[in-house]
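Researcher: I'm comparing several assemblies side by side, and this is the next one on my list. It has 1485 residues spread over four chains. Same procedure as the others: predict the full complex and return the structure.
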Amino acid sequence: METQSVLVIGGGIAGIQASIDLANMGFEVYLVEETPSIGGRMAQLDKTFPTNDCAMCILAPKMIECAGHERVHLLTYCDVVELDGTAGDFRVTVRRKPRYVDVEKCTGCGDCAQKCPRRVPDEFNVGLAKRKAAYLPFPQAVPRKMTIDAQSCLYLTKGRCRVCEETCQAGAIDFEQQEELVELEVGAIVLATGFDPFDPGSLKEYGYGGIDNVITGLEYERLICASGPTGGHLKRPSDGQVPRVIAFIQCVGSRDVNYQPYCSSVCCMHATKEAILANEHYPELKSFIFYTDMRAVGKQFQEYIIRAREEYGVGYIRSRPGKITENEETGNPVVWYDETIYSDAGDPERRVASMEVDLVVLCQALVPHSVHAETAEKLGLILDGSGFVSIGDRLFRPVDTSVPGIFACGFCQGPQDIPDSVIQASAAAARVAEILAKKSKELEHA
Amino acid sequence: MVSSSDSLGNGFEPKILVFACNWCSYAGADLAGVSRLQMPPNCRVVRVMCSARVRPEFVITALSKGLDGVLVLGCHPGDCHYSEGNYFTRRRGLLLRKLLEYVGIEPERFQVRWVSASEGAKFAETVERVTEQIRALGPNRPRSEVLPTEPGDK
Amino acid sequence: MPKTRVGVFVCHCGNNIGGVVRVPDVVEYARTLPNVTYAEDNLYTCSEEGLSSIKDQIAKEGLNRIVVASCTPRTHEPLFKKACEEAGLNKYLFEFVNIREHCSWVHMHDPAMATQKAKELVRMGVAKAVHLEPQEEFESDVFPAALVIGGGVAGMSAALALANQGIQVHLVEREQELGGLIRGVQTLFPTEQDTDELLRPLAERVKAHPQISVFLGSEVESVSGFIGDFDVSVRTDGEVEGLRVGTIVVATGAEELKPVGLYRYGELPNVVTQLEFEEQFKSGGDVPRSVAIINCVGARIPQRTYCGRFCCATAIKNAIWMMERDPEARVYVLHRDVMAYGVEIEEFYQRAMELGVRFLRYDVESPPEVLGEDRAKAVKVQHQLMGKEVTLPVDMVVLTTPLVARDDNGKLSKMLKVPLGSEGFFLEAHLKLRPIEFSTDGVYVCGAARYPSNIPESVSQAYAAAAKASIPIREGLVRVEAITAVCDERTCSACGNCVEACPFGAVELQQGRFGRTAYVNTALCKGCGCCVAACPSGAMQQRGFSDRQVLSMIGALAEVMTGGVE
Amino acid sequence: MQDKLQEVVRKLLAEGAVEYFIGYCQSSQPHRAVPCFVSDESEVEKLVWGPLCGQNLSKYVLRANELEGKVGILLKGCDTRAIVELIKQHQIERDKIVAIGVPCQGQVDGRKLEKALGVSLEQVTNVEDAGDGFLVTVGEETKKVPKEEVLLDKCFRCKHPYAFPYDVTLGEVVPFTIEADVGEYAAVEELEALPIEERRAFWRKQFERCIRCNACREACYACYCKECLFDRKMPRWLAAPPLLSENEMYHLIRAVHLAGRCIDCGECQRVCPVNIPLGSLYRKIQKDVAELFDYEAGMEMDTVPPLVNFELDDQDPFL
């Protein structure tokens, strides 16, 4: 079977899985990732539902397998600038952004980062910690190569410093590095650009940005993570205290005509997991989840909810809070919501209630990744109303986009959790194999 | 003779053998390094694919040969890369701990811990604690009691 | 056997190691170790210079064991193993010593101790290296055909996805025609197209495909062998045919729960399940004007805890179908949570409400009640929002029930040596990252046999399963890293501990040259070593992690304390 | 009972149902019964049964594997636990054995008897079971010794699989019971109660005496490995000289190997030339296996050995 090439866009778990499968099928795979490391959103998670196993424990081996595969060519810190051609022979132009580090020489030792004087917010820790301008995005990054971020590097912005250059024993720092364009010829393309968390700041009623102790689900995830900025110690922003009561608010920006009409699919389970983790770290801690419908539809999900209720005492309140205010003295957020109370006669009655808690976690909507729209445009893909890649034949071609030869998997084509993304990634690989097999047959016949 | 104690002549420094599984705990130890978490230099890590590879005979031998402690590290139950391995580790650990204690070997000298790939800090803390505990206990047995021979086939 | 000649290469890693550990001392020390005939230090052993120096010294010094003391094997081992191979040395004669992550980086303020530790780690590494043996990686051929069990949408999609790659597929369906569960369904979510229109062409493509042989009215009777080489016998009315395949896809689907005893189902004629409802109107027939749909019937209850996943969508679909046929109709959906996850189902849910479908939430503690003597006439329910009990007059009650696992899953799971979960569905290797694989290689699962899933999900799983099932066939062989277990048949006493301990069913007791002994099927072994630790006599060993190798490391460390060695 | 035994065995041999029979016969010294192998009807009258048949004969059935036919064996209830394990561990097929079950009223511990009588065993000419005691003849005089004074330890905790499928029984085989105010694991608990350093001292004293003659291993029904770990050359686990450290290693590793296998038959302790209280070591393992994993060796045919089995909710002090 002659080898053909495939382009995979996006180095998250879906892109990684698609790349590994395709490479194992015998294709040459070019995996383009815009950040300096593969790993994607999953790398930022602490544990994963419903098994509670450590995300990095199961992801890291995949990252290493992917990067180490003889037929996978990693193009990190790169993005797609141009595409033409049709299924079977696409021509793709990829831009490699300068790292200002010679990856051949760099050993990822991190000396440059230690000496680098410039501190900037750390994306991996969603701004909860600082990184240097010369940095490794996270300790298990693959490839283990440093990157100098041109926006914040003193030398590149103000023309002085170069401390990293003196520090680096390997002589890997290279400020002469220029952006380069890489031309690829591929038979098919797999899109796996994933999601961004929706910024809940626009929902003024929830006070995110105004009230210190109102944080987002992803921020919480980093706080509870053993390798996060607080070493897994849950400290609330206002005073670093460990919260005793946490409220998780669901559907923040989801199922909301003013923001995202769709259901983000993972937040119910995500919140439940976060509540369980909180309780595992601090058995005294009490969590309440304010939800609309508890959408736990996957394998072992209902059982997970039951465990959360019974073993970890997580409280589920069916209500969509109207607003969150702040108790000025304590800095405690106060959640205002409708509750149903029952009279002695057992007749329910709705009334407005409030609950003062130590920390509020907003389980924000998840939206298609920011640059995904441009990428889609370059590829000529049709997007649906919410910005997800639209799928031609939902029923029998669930990973085929509107452009033949281009397939989409994972969150970029609709909200879904890790297992479903992994499944779609493999499905995309199968579709690639189908059309390229057909293609090569046609060539034979021609 | 060079045991770390004599090399620097400042009191008893235990020698501790650590078995770490490739997928979680060894990765956790690496993370501790990458994060530059400083810890006492008394532990020597031996990599195995799964903590379940560590047969109790290894632990017993190490202690009989004069090492001051043995630490076995594996994935948290449920996380085992081979799905079941660490459950066997757990049972062996439970039994061996009691047996050693019964013949008068302090339980601190043989410990099992679960360390995930993201628990670099836990690895460092574990090494720290175990080293202190064993340092406090003193040598496992008089050096003179042990044959200066490497098991193997000479 | 040639004399053992160990070469030791100690890396400064710039000053990452060299800045703390006195690397030259470590090299000096290494030279004094038994069997070490060469040692050097490198600024970066992983650099081109470092690697070529390893290769040169293998040639010049006739080194037949290589020890590199630098960073972590988890990232760099392949690099050094490759270098050994390029110099003509079996890559399993390489040993890695981690003196960066495990030494210099964690003892930055104690160079003396760090150096001492590095020496001891190198000593242990060398001690192990001496006992390393060259290994051949196990390879076995893969028979270029696949078996798909089940001819529903998942099975057909998997078969086509494989066949279109040019792979020979055998598709076994128990019924006399293809299509599976949804043959009874009239329209499909989310496109609302007519099922037959969709199913017929699909079935035709399968039947017509030159690479697919379809077995109708057939069942798999027995399976033996392992990945790459399964022997399968298929029974078709009396006749048994033997098939040889390399991989197997399970797509046996599931069945709709018949909720006998719930909501007077089976007692009243006009209380039916969703599937019965669709079958009834598929052929036409008057649609009742007033219908109550009750969701979560027999699901999310103590006896059956799981959620049917797509049954809410089914209920919504049928509610919409009724409203669109008759805008005057009164359709109530009595539910607990509306599982309208994602984009489309949520849209569907909104549309149903716009069309006037009435959604009432009931509490599992006070479930609805079906009223009527010989027919269901009304449904009584505690209205959660209005906070009072309401009675809804109805002409028909439709019960939304989940899919349940087939009883004969157990039979198949034994045949294939793959597990079932508590609900009786097939249990994947890992819920998160290996959702359609089993820990037993070469067997994959998709569709409702794994867990209830709608058509798009089942088809995705089918493609995914096809991808996995095609990989060994496309590669033509299965290759296994040589860290597998191996049993010394001469000294094995067949106590069977290893068989119990193996998570992968890779060890069996077999009658062989030395009587009954344990035997490791290398194709299935994953190299965890569970069986090795369980073997009292030491007959079972693991390549690259043998008792001999580990013991020599323990001994090397013990020696430092007891022997007069520096 | 003895006559019945001989009659049964004679019949088995006559019919050719067994190639030979494993039982006890009188040794040259009257105070001991020793294993004997009877392959001919003429030898049958050698077979004896009485209170001196404490030894566990099970290990000898492994010889049946070399035979075409079957072997017969006389089994006390306690011995059947060994047979159960040997079958579970694939060392013998059930149908290679013709098992003759004998009702047992407790067996004499020679060392205890010496103590009780204050005379050396050599002078004992006869021992008979007399219900609550044993009639012991020394020289001319016969006196009754209460059972609780001279029974083997294991008899105080007599238990065995009720449902063991004997082929023939010489009467109803049920566990023997005796009033004894000692708990099941008394000896172990006594040691457990000591401060840890005293326990270390105690066991060091025991292990120091070991001459590594391997008698305990040879006597153990469960030590059937074709090649013992300790006899391997590559790697060699133990250094040759019987140093304390190496002895300790030997006994601890044996203890681990016997987890879920030791059935408390007491052979190891009986044969130990330097009287190391090995019983107390292996009882400990039995106690922990029972308490931690709810497993008792030799009681059931279809249970999985404790160290190659697990429960998701096993206790977990390792977090």
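Model: For your comparison table: DSSP finds 15 helices and 30 strands in chain C.
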